[in-house]
Amino acid sequence: MAEIIRMPRMSDTMTEGVIVDWFKKVGDSIEPGDLLAEVETDKATMELESYQEGTILFIGVEKGDAIPVEGVLAVIGEKGEDYQALLDEEKAKAEASETKEEAPAASPAPAPAAKPAAAPAAKPAPAPAPAIAAMPAAVNSNGRVKISPLAKRLAKENNVQISALVGSGDEGRIIKRDIEAYLANPAAAKAASGAAAPTQIVQLPQIVGEESYEEIAISQMRKTIAARLGESKFQAPHFYLTIDIKMDRLMESRKAMNEVSPVKISFNDLVIKAAAVALRSHPWVNSSWLGDRIRLNKHIHIGMAVAVDEGLLVPVIRFADSKTLSHIAAETNELGTKAKTKKLGLDEMQGNTFTISNLGMMGIEEFTAIINPPDACIMAVGTIRQHPVFENGNWKAENRMKVTLSCDHRVVDGATGAKFLQTFKSMLEDPVRLLV
What we know:
The chain has helices spanning 84-102, 149-157, 176-184, 186-192, 220-235, 248-258, 267-281, 325-340, 414-429; strands spanning 3-6, 16-22, 29-30, 35-40, 45-49, 54-59, 66-68, 72-77, 238-246, 287-289, 294-296, 302-304, 306-308, 311-313, 316-317, 354-358, 377-391, 394-408. It is α+β, with helices and mostly antiparallel strands. It has a 6-stranded mixed beta sheet. The longest helix is centred in the first third of the chain and has 19 residues, at 84-102.
């Protein structure tokens, strides 16, 4: 029996996916475990496996197009089987939803008739109210025009440019009657959307130079980064604490550690370990804001921000306080490689209780980072630089590093954040404490 294959929710924040590539085409046989398609979600590009057995009878979305969660990806069944009834049922559901949306609100009950009164003295007629300009169709948070599935199909069949239309549905959504109105009178519809008559071009002297630009489609990952960090920045009251750390002893200790470590230990690995150990003593910095409550996490999972072409991914080092430096070094190397090759699993990008963003390797001396929700804090790590220091009557060069803690003031107070940084600083300035 033919069966619809729907777009699954492949991450907790996913609302739609983009088909990067199809591994199967109509007429191909497929078995459970076979790769069906490659899908770009809001967090990564992932391979979609089939859980059904049969023949691909229908593919509902083209390569490069977006499809909402629960949308019809494909139909699988026996070779030659009639699947049109399934698609007709989906279409009927969409039309029923459209009809419900377009149903007019119930008219209010008529007001009781008023008693006759003497006619008032004649007054000048009020000036006509100014016309309200129609607004173009609304767009959603992903930058797409809001349009019902039925209206979208009608627009596509009649080559209607939806971006110029006025939506009369909820929140400016374009619905079927808007497309029908346009088809009945395209000129009036364009006028309502504010389209102006062509302007005569005035010939001007030629200016040296040429304007040019390139528009790049926003990836699902970039859309999610924009939404989550925008929400974090404008909803969580951030404040920032910066501390300066002496790094000479740590640099000497790292050199000695790498002589015996099975894997190379980086400064970032030492920062992760020091932060994890310091969080044991400061649980409020390791907490999460959940809207109506605060979660004090007993476990310590460090998120490690990794830059990729489309933005940032945050793989998670779990129970970082309990792991040795060589274990952390091996794990950060593996997770960093997976992030850059888009091979991270969802379980490797979830559950962080504290996040570290390190731009020291790029020569950035000091910066602030936006909190990665639902964490209460994120730490920005700068580069190690030599600074002149006057001590005992002599000048000497000293290696120092600045870190800045961004705190959510709904959870962490200034003194709490400062005490955490003091503990963190003591760990790096006395590296032996990281080994016990």
